[in-house]
Give the backbone structure.
Amino acid sequence: MRRSIESILALIGLVVCMLVAILFASVAGLQGAMFPFPGLYLIQIALLGVLGTAPLWLRAPAWHAARWAAAGMLLAFSILGAFTLGPFVLPACLSLLGAAFLSSREAGLPVPRGLAWFAGAALAQAALMLLFVQLSIRGMLL
C-alpha cells in the first residue's frame, strides 16, 4: 500500500513540474524573454520532476537521497518565486517530500538523513538562485 501511495505522490510531482515548466515556458516565450532566465529555471524544474520519480525504477539508496534533494530544491523555488511560479511548484515539492518520506521508511533508511539532504539542497538552490540574480543585475550574465 505504501509503495502505491509513494508512486502516486511521485507521479503527481512529475506531472506538476512538467505542467509548470510547459505553461510558464509558453507564457515567457510569448513575451520573448525565455533565456537565460526563466528558461534555465524552467528546465531545472522539469528535470527535478524527473529526478523525483527516478527511485520508482532505481532502488539504490542514492536515488532516495536524490528525491529528498529534488524536493528541497523545489522548496527553494517555491519560496524565492513566491509571487510568480512558487505557488504552482509547492504541490510538487510537497508530493515529492511525501514520496521521499515513504520510500525512506520502506527502504529502512534514516529519515533525519533525508531531511538533511532536503534542507541542504534547499539552501544550496536558494544560494545559487540569489547568486544568479545578483550576476544578472550586474550585467555579468547573458
Notes: The first helix runs from residue 2 to 31.
